[in-house]
Specification:
Blueprint lengths: L1 H12 L2 H14 L6 E3 L2 E2 L4 H13 L4 E2 L6 E4 L8 E5 L2 E3 L2 E11 L11 H16 L4 E5 L3 E8 L2 E7 L5 E7 L16
Antiparallel strand pairs: 1-2, 3-4, 4-5, 5-7, 6-7, 7-11, 8-9, 9-10, 10-11
Length: about 190
Amino acid sequence: MLSVITICILFAGCTPKARYERTLKRELSSGIRNDSLFFGIRLGMTSKEFYAHCWNLNKQGLVKQGSVNRSVEYITRDELKHKAAMNFYPTFNHDKIVEMPVRFSYTGWAPWNKKLAADSLQMDIINWYSKKYGEGFIKVKHPIHGTAFVKVDGNRRITVFKETSLIVWAVFRDMSAEMPEIDSFGNKTE
């Protein structure tokens, strides 16, 4: 009986959730800050800095106004296997970026085109981000969206999950920052 309990305890300690929680605790206690996101945007940037920076990116032709004028849009070039729209807009708390949700969708997606479905896009993003931010994404169970992949480096957490057969989200979050009561998705925060 004791050996069965020991095996259960060891197995529980090896679950993806336990591995994630250990990684999060270790990374937060390291004191390392990784605020870099993409295109020179960083966690902790003020809203004024963000808008000015995006204005300059727009003048360079790198980004444009995103869907329904509520995001910034970048069309990938060679980062992914297929061209995709990348729409992003941060969550601010005390006028500083604390979270950056990024919505991806392949531009050529169609319900019958399985190679451009969210399953492929999610893995394509994981491969890209593993090169850009380093290896170490952990496969976990997302409470709403099923399988997700999470990477924690110091204070920065990146979570990649599928929303629909078209849309994949990558959410960057400063785990050391105080979050607003409502996040970018309209959900109460932890």
